[in-house]
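User: Here's a structure from my thesis project, written as structure tokens. My advisor, Dr. K., wants to see whether a designed sequence matches the one we expressed. Can you design one independently, without my sequence as a hint?
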């Protein structure tokens, strides 16, 4: 992963931001669902 970021910094940063935003979006969708199931 470090090699990819060094060789292609912009692509690495873009993919990293995409992964983080996608994960946070998924988490935001799953959190209310789990709260509904638990309560």
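Assistant: Designed independently from the structure alone:
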């Amino acid at each position: 992963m470090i090699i990819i970021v060094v060789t292609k910094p912009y692509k690495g940063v873009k993919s990293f931001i995409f992964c983080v935003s996608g994960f946070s979006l998924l988490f935001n969708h799953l959190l209310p669902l789990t709260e509904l199931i638990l309560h």
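When you compare it with your expressed construct, this may help: The radius of gyration is 15 Å.
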